[in-house]
Amino acid sequence: MNLEYFPNGLGNGSLVLIYGIDPIAVSSLKEHLVALTTKRIKRFAVHELPGFLAVDECRLFCSIAQRDRGVVLLEPPNTFECRLQPSSWDNIEGLLEPFTEKDPIHGFQWLDRGNIALMISVRREW
Fold first, then answer.
1. How far apart are CA 56 and CA 100, in angstroms?
2. Reduced 3-state DSSP string for 50-104
3. Spatial separation of the C-alpha atoms in residues 95 and 110, rounded to whole Å
4. Which residue range forms the structural domain that includes residue 14?
5. Which of 3, 57, 79, 120 could share a disulfide with 75, CB 3.0–4.6 Å?
6. pLDDT for 99-115, tens place per residue?
7. 126 in a structural domain
8. What are the tens digits of pLDDT across the range 1-10?
């Protein structure tokens, strides 16, 4: 799975896109999200998970927050953190389910629509 930042991905907005077809990598991402929702971990790096490739050194951390903040820029130009409540991570974990299939039915799915959007797609498009 590729992880790439598009500063002008949504008209005037920006986008962090996870794309590709790798059910095993997405399953690993889901397992880490479950660990967040159950508070076994507080933070992890998506770009360090097996099967993920950081395009142009795009880095994404996921962490637990008291309130949903969405994706925020940590370090320009390509280091981000998605800060959400456990219940929101639980919702995202469910949204990833179709992408754990060998032939995903959905082409893309919004994971968070904050100032910097987060999306998963089977291709480098949305």
1. 25
2. CCCEEHHHCEEEEEECCCCCEEEEEECCCEEEEEECHHHHHHHHHHCHHHHCCCC
3. 8
4. 2-121
5. 79
6. 998 876 668 999 999 88
7. no
8. 999 999 987 6
